[in-house]
Amino acid sequence: MTDSSAVVVRRSKIQGRGVYAARNLAEGERIIEYTGKLITSAQADAVGDDEQMRRHHTFLFAVDDKWVVDATDEGSEARYINHSCDPNCESVIVRRRVYIHALRPIAEGEELVYDYWYITDGDYTLADLQRIYPCRCKSPICRGTLARPPPQRSRRVGRDKATVMRAR
Ligand SMILES: C[S@@+](CC[C@H](N)C(=O)[O-])C[C@H]1O[C@@H](n2cnc3c(N)ncnc32)[C@H](O)[C@@H]1O
Ligand SMILES: [Zn+2]
C-alpha cells in the first residue's frame, strides 16, 4: 500500500514538474508506486529514439530485461519524480511493480529524487552521455548525466534504443 497524500506535484527547479513530500517521510518508507502500462522492451524501443528527441524525455521504467512500465498515458504522480545524482529516494522492483522508497528521512516540502541510472545500449563516452542525457540536479556530486557512466573510456558505435529508467 502507498499513501497518495504523501506527495504533491508542482514545478521543479530541476526540470518541468517534480514531486514533493506533502508530509515528513521516514527512512525506508514506501512512498508511492510508479504505475503505468506494462509493455515489452521492444514496444518501449518504438516509443522513441533518444537521439531523435530535441530534449530527451520519457515516462518509461524498465523492470527487467523484457518488461517496461510505460507511464505516458496513465500513471501515478511518481512519473514526475526527477533524477538527482545525490538522491533521497530509490526505486524498488517487486514482481514487475516499481515502488519509490525513502533513502533517508525526508522533510515536508523537499523534492523527491532518485538516480535514473539510464543504461544505454550504445557504446558511449561520458561526454556523449552528458550531451544526450544532461543532468541539471545541481548537486555538488552531479556526474552531469542521467545515465550510468561508462565503465571505461570507449569508442562510440551503433544507434541507441529507447532509454528507460532502471533500479540501480
Ligand atoms: C519521468 S520525467 C520526470 C518529470 C519531468 N520533470 C516532467 O515534468 O515531465 C523524466 C524526464 O524529466 C527530465 N529530467 C528529470 N530529471 C532531470 C535532471 N536531473 N536534469 C535534467 N532533466 C531531468 C528529463 O527530460 C527526463 O527524461
Ligand atoms: Zn546530476
Structural write-up:
- With 168 residues, the protein is mainly beta.
- 8% of the residues lie in helices and 27% in strands.
- It has one domain: SET domain (Beta-clip-like, Beta Complex).
- Strand 8 (89-94) and strand 9 (97-102) form a beta hairpin.
- The mean pLDDT is 88.
- The chain has helices spanning 41-47, 126-132, and strands spanning 7-11, 17-21, 30-34, 37-40, 60-62, 67-70, 82-83, 89-94, 97-102, 111-114, 165-166.
- The strands form 3 sheets. The chain has a 4-stranded mixed β-sheet, with no helix packed on it. A 4-stranded mixed β-sheet has the order 4-6-5-11. Strands 3-9-8 form a 3-stranded antiparallel β-sheet, with no helix packed on it.
- It is globular.
- The protein binds S-adenosylmethionine (SAM) and zinc ion (ZN).
- The site of zinc ion has 7 residues, from loops.
